[in-house]
Amino acid sequence: MNIKEVAKKAGVSVATVSRVLNHPESVAPDTKQRILDVIQELEYTPNWFARGLNFNKTDTIGLLIPNILNPSYMEIAKGVEDVSHQKGCNTLLCNGENAVEKERKYVDVLVKRRVDGIVLVSSLLESEDVENITKQGIPVVLIGENRGDVRGVPIVRIDCEGASYKAVRHLIDIGYKDIAIIFGSTPEKENRRKLDGYRQALAEEGITEWEEYLQEAPNTIEGGYIAGKRLIDLKHRPRAIFTSSDLLAFGAIDAMKDHGVKVPDEVAFVGFDNIRMSNLIEPKLTTVEKPMHKMGVVGARLLFDIIDTKGDEIINREILLQSKLKIRKSCGHRERIGEIF
Amino acid sequence: MKTEFMGLKLKNPVVVAAGPWNRDGRSIRQGLAAGAGAVITETIVSDALIDVRPRIAYNGLGAQNIRLYSDIQVEGWQREMDIAKSKDGVVIASVSAHTPSELAYLAMKMEKFGADAIELGISSPMGESLEVVASDAERVFQMTREVVRSVKIPVMVKLSQNATNISKVAKAVKSAGGAGVSAINTVRCILGVDVETAEPTLSTYGGYSGAPIRPLGLASVATIAQTVDDIQICGIGGIEDYKNALEYIMLGASAVQVGTSVMINGFDRILEIVGDLEKWAEKKGIKEVKHIRGMALKNLKSFEEIKIEPVVSRIDNPVCHAECVACVKACIYGAIQKEGDKIILDTEKCTGCGLCTFVCPDKKFKLDW
User: Fold this and answer.
1) Structural domains of chain A, count
2) Which of B55, B156, B193, B278 is deepest in the core (most CB within 10 A)?
3) For B150-180, what is each residue's pLDDT tens digit?
4) Nearest Cβ partner of A301 from B74, B76, B98?
5) Which structural domains are found in chain B, ordered by start?
6) Could you say which of B70, B94, B123, B124 is catalytic?
7) pLDDT tens string B247-257
8) Which helix (H) or strand (E) holds A305?
């Protein structure tokens, strides 16, 4: 069944049928109804790929995330999808698995499918990779920081350095000095910034930085476990640990439990992300709240701003969202008020 | 009684405040149809969240609410604004966010959807840190400036009584290019505790609104009017009738917002306030708000300026049949006694504090010398 047969049966031109499908408001009500009846009778479904060729629009966007198993990215994905769905668009989710080659391959597929735009979440792509996409007329929006410095595309991010500084500052303020950090090897740039924030807070207080207190690990629960184990085994064990993600904190706390180390009495924890589980584990995790869903929503919004206006506006906008320290029990702080506000 | 507020020509100074009673295009039209000079949308945020339940409590005097933000995403507000602006009427968009760039983006969107002005709702006492955003003049400056740079329509900032120095914040708004301020937002509160169950009325801190906060709002508006030159003020807090609206205007407001009263009484209350205000203005021959704006400010004095006259309490007729001893109880100086139906006033003991003139239900006392 194709559009020509619908046109023939309804006694109108192919162009009129097409108008009913794409701009129904421009067709006289009687004609429109007659054509819709025929469409129903013949059970005609438009060929969306062909439609994409005609309109230079496929009503599909691509979303590339670093790791599908990390809940923080799933919340971002949900935010993107919420807006995309409301815009009548489909979202193709690509799992980059923290591998730049896999990311490049996915981008290649998305470009070939002529998606209307691409959202890159804390991507490992280099600036040339991103330029290659935009050069082909496909808009890109970044959520979180890309490895390569990319100019000329909108970005939604948080201040990782400032947020980490505040988290470590909080540990210092409530009396800890021996503070270690477990930071994920990916996403690279953001975790470097978190490390900078940690260092800044220590330096400000004149606290010496110990090499063995800087633990780099894969950004997973397992990575956290191994790094946590290494810290337990140190001769001079830290009294507090800041982790660059909640997953790392979960793993490290698990290691503490396995080795009979009490949290927060012997080792206190502050995480990063505030994924749902951080409020459910015991002790409840003190963590930096990253507005993940909002990052997704705003990122998708910026992408559709470009798609809808064909790039006339908002090319180089940066939206910085606020992160916030959620003070719960794992840091050993007893004031409840920090949990409420 | 017309008014000009931030360059917007309003047919009267009564504005429906931001809140869930203005949650969509249809309800905004209701406020306008009731005669409001303008309507402010429910506060729009980047990421609409599911509302907690319950979230509003009322004790007959004032109301506590927990986070009343729009549950319609920005995309949906395009449709709602089309409805809101489908006929005449001024619609102001209330937006809230935590960083300048986020706030500016929301304001731009709402300008595009047809808003006539923007109100920055950055003074909510809920779900923020202990210190509300609007208590930090520098942060308010950064936020206002970025929004002002991003839109062409006028921008006002809703201020908070939770700030230590509200006029410093109002000055920051002005120097950032803001066209006006609205004062005051709700005040952080806990409405009460059930002593049998030890349960607070609502399960978290909230914002207090309604008549009990009106004296706070009046003081804030007067302070801003007396300290910040050429800033347009929209008075808000506990307005229940036309007299309350006039109180704010006489202390320096160009327009006023009504919120809790609409929440409790419906849009009829707008109709009432607007109607009564017109009648009052007509009787007085006043056509525009600017002719009475700030009239009461000249009567606000410093302690030094208050002339100490030897006034004491007086009564014309000491006979009082009421079974009431409010005056006796309230006289902390022991100057009032009651014997049978007779009030005995000792003017030697009276220090002229004035409290008896307020507590007597029959208004028998007056100060004189």
Assistant:
1) 3
2) B156
3) 999 999 999 998 888 999 999 999 999 999 9
4) B74
5) 3-299 (3.20.20.70), 312-368 (3.30.70.20)
6) B124
7) 999 999 999 99
8) helix A292-308
